[in-house]
Design goal:
Helices cover 44% and strands 10% of the residues. It has helices at residues 2-14, 23-33, 41-60; strands at 21-22, 65-68, 88-91.
Length: 101
């Protein structure tokens, strides 16, 4: 679901309609998709944490997603070092989604 959304967003980037999809935007989009299933604020926080972990796994272990570092995330000596950077995410160009999905 997350990878498919990013691939669709990449098509918009190529068409010049978008600058990219940031990690926070992807998480927010996912939570909007499942909002009907969420009953409590605690469940929302839990789903958000799970989504963040899945995205991190897709980046670091599966290598399906690639984080594009922006100049603002590379600044040194700023408060951004304490906060996780909100980098743009793209799907690895060699990754092919199964058509049965």
């Amino acid at each position: 679901m997350l990878v498919i959304k990013l691939q669709r967003e990449e098509a918009r980037i190529e068409a010049g309609e978008s600058e990219g999809f940031r990690k926070s935007q992807l998480i927010e989009w996912y939570l909007e998709q499942i909002v009907a299933d969420i009953e409590t604020e605690a469940e929302l926080v839990q789903r958000k944490m799970i989504c963040e972990k899945i995205i991190d796994k897709l980046i670091t272990i599966d290598h399906i997603l690639i984080e594009l570092k922006t100049s603002e995330s590379q600044e040194e000596g700023t408060e951004q070092e304490k906060v996780e950077p909100d980098n743009i995410l793209v799907v690895h160009p060699d990754y092919v989604i199964d058509d049965n999905f």
